[in-house]
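Could you please consider the sequence and fold following this short note?
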Amino acid sequence: MLQNHDGQIEAHSASAGLDYPGIGPLHAFLHQIQMALYIAVYDEEVVNAALKLTRLEGIIPALESAHAIAALEKLHFKESGIVVVNLSGRGDKDMETYKIHLEKDE
């Protein structure tokens, strides 16, 4: 559960689909037995990762998928390794959010 120091539940994400403060029992179990790794990324990192993918590949990812792309920057892989990221959804529905974040940077 995402809580502040006063025990208040706080959750925020640039993506409305990820604006949820808790996890289910399966994810908690997988984390506990070290079969899953969960990485926090900030909205700015998400938008920057999405823009980078758009520039390099011409793909506008949905914000949910952009979270996974942003997390890649925090992981280390073997040079010979292969990484597969499943891009779900479409980024065109998130254009207003992208625009808001881009205007903040100006």
Notes: DSSP finds four helices and no strands in the chain. The mean pLDDT is 84. The domain at 40-105 is CATH 3.40.50.1100 (Rossmann fold). The longest helix spans residues 43-57.
